[in-house]
Amino acid sequence: MPRNTRILAAVFLIVSATFMSAQKPDAPGHEWWKRAVFYELYPRSFADSNNDGVGDLNGITSKMGYLRDLGVDAIWISPCFPSPQVDFGYDVSDYENIDPMYGTLKDFDAMAAEGKKKGVRIILDFVVNHSSDKHPWFIESSSSKTNPKRDWYIWRDGKPNGGPPNNWMSTFGGSAWKLDVRTGQFYYHYFYAEQPDLNWRNPEVQKAMYDVTRFWYKRGVSGFRLDAVDTLFEVPDLRDNQVLEGKNAYGDPITDEKFNKKLPEVHDVMRGLRKVADEHGAVLIGETWTDDIAELKEYYGTKNDEIQMPMNFMFTQVNKVSATDFRSQIAAAESTGQWPVWVISNHDIVRSYNRYGDGKNNDAIAKLMAAMYLTLRGTPIMYYGEELGMENNTPKRKEDVQDPIGRRGWPEEKGRDGERTPMQWSDAPNAGFSTVKPWLPVPNSYKTHNVATELKDPDSVLNFYKKVLALRHTNEVLTEGSYVPLNDADAKVLAYLRKYEGKAVLVVLNMSGAAHEVKLDLVAQGLSNANVQELVSTASKAQKGNAPLKVSLQPFGVYIAEITK
Ligand code: GLC
After folding, report:
1. β-strands 243-247, 253-255: how paired?
2. Contact 178, 165 (CB under 8 A)
3. What's the Cα-to-Cα distance from 482 to each of 189, 226, 504, rounded to whole Å?
4. Which residue is catalytic, options 265, 279, 457, 459?
5. Residue in 473, 565, 555 with CA at minimum distance from that of residue 517
6. Distance of CA 290 to CAs 110, 299, 506, Å?
7. What residues flank ligand 1, with Cβ below 6 Å?
8. Three-class SS state of 520
9. How far does the centroid of ligand 1 lie from the alpha carbon of residue 80, in Å?
10. Which residue from 222, 338, 398, 484 puts its CA 20 to 30 A from 309's CA?
11. Eight-class DSSP state of 44
12. For 268-286, what is each residue's pLDDT tens digit?
């Protein structure tokens, strides 16, 4: 080889090796977060190492082995920063520390180190729209009209009659403006009055917030879940929103929120946060409530330069076990050409066990839901306890409610305590979470639905999750494969293939309370029935051999099989 060619070849090799190691740590062709299973945990409720009734970071550290064995690759921890806890951590008074209730920065480092050892990455929850009113930034900002931090929040004069600047309402009830008597101006808060909105039009705020992410990236976090991103901007001239018909749970008029939500400027900030994330190989997950798929698509960025993982909440709004509805939701997500993010519950939504359960077949339905969202193309985000079939424990009396919106909106809005109860570790008192009374009570079903009991039962919801999660991690068709819907007109059974390099995984889900037999034409998909190998199933079986493939399923049955050519 002539010398010049040799040099060129060497340069090519170095450049391509560098490029590949920077871009694609997890071959083939996918960033780590596309192959990962995420798990949201609510730190108040996950594990209580010091038995004070509230969970903590050392508790999380002690459960890393459980998370790894379950098949979790990354945990998103709801806010664990110093906070007056008005909104249970979503009112942050210091973005760069840990609330003493949860531990210290040293405990955080120990947790991250243990996570690293066990292969569990840490994702933190970044409350971008607002801080606590006890954050030093707001304390300064509210100290005088001329304070250098005055413009870090949204301050305005009231109307000449003394009323608030406009008709915008807080999503947690009442006006979105609060009068500060000291300076005679109102400040804007889309959430509680104790959560003043930051002014993202101010470059100093932007810089300070981007720096917060740098602080945590340097401490080893792998990304952020971005809280309430659609509320970041408001129109500067504060036009009134249009008032719609009716009243909400707080007795407030309903408005269209056109001028204080989903403003296009949000995307500039997403791009800014992404730029910093890219410097650290990190992932951004978005709390992206959207009305339609076009809106969701925007959050990926026109140049794929915004949020890598905007959560598809439209999926959580199906609220019934329906093959037709889920099929069209999946088709919509697929139509974006993007990487979908599947969620069925979180700390703001009634648990999936109750939303989808029919009261009789809840465990079967919990398995059915898992079989669906853990086998679709895309990344799933689990919610702690979902793997146990943990149920909602909605408060029965107003005086028991902790979540302020539940007290304000009772009885129509009962708050979010029900989906935030302690993780059920065993059948010991308080579900083994704590030796003292926990901050929220566990539901009675903890006696059967807990980690220790379910680990011993091969048919438990937990062991079903473990099986499907293990499959996701070992069968590359499930991470790499395309999604091919089957039997499109079937209103009862949702069936699809995942296909990758000549291999396929078949998923058949009976979304009804009656037994069904489905016929699947695999030959039309370029596959044969000869090599159908069952992987995971509940109450279902296939008759192999002749075409079409016949699968019979009991109520809410699941059939997952591998098909090789
Ligand atoms: C998000 C959080 C929710 C919180 C709100 C205000 O919607 O998920 O729990 O109350 O933001 O920060």
Report:
1. antiparallel
2. no
3. 43, 28, 9
4. 279
5. 555
6. 37, 10, 30
7. 87, 90, 127, 191, 227-228, 287, 347-348
8. strand
9. 13
10. 484
11. G
12. 999 999 999 999 999 999 9
Summarize pLDDT for 41-58 with one digit per residue, the tens: 999 999 999 999 999 999
Tokens 């942050």, residue located? 92
DSSP classification of residue 415: -
Give the span between the Cα atoms of 505 and 527, in whole angstroms.
11
Please indicate whether residue 227 is annotated as part of the active site: yes
Query: From the CA of 227, how far away is ligand 1's center (Å)?
Result: 6
Q: Which residue has the tokens 């804007």?
A: 188
Find where tokens 């006006």 sit: 175
Catalytic option among 227, 230, 298, 386: 227
Read off the pTM. 0.94
Tokens 């006890």, located at residue = 134
- Give the DSSP letter of residue 75: E
CA distance 216 to 532: 47
Helix (H, G, I), strand (E, B) or coil at 279: helix
Computed over its alpha carbons, how large is the radius of gyration of the chain?
Answer: 25
Which of 420, 556, 437, 564 minimizes the C-alpha distance to 503? 564
From 81, 83, 88, 90, give the residue whose CB has the most ligand 1 atoms within 8 Å, as the site to mutate: 90
3-state secondary structure of 175: strand
Q: How many of the other CB atoms lie within 10 Å of CB of 1?
A: 8
Separation of 347 CA from ligand 1 center, angstroms? Answer: 9
Report residue 538 as tokens. 């509940």
Model confidence over 389-432: pLDDT tens digits? 999 999 999 999 999 999 999 999 999 999 999 999 999 999 99
Return d(Cα 384, Cα 425) in angstroms, integer.
11
Supply the residue whose CA is at minimum distance from atom 6 of ligand 1: 90
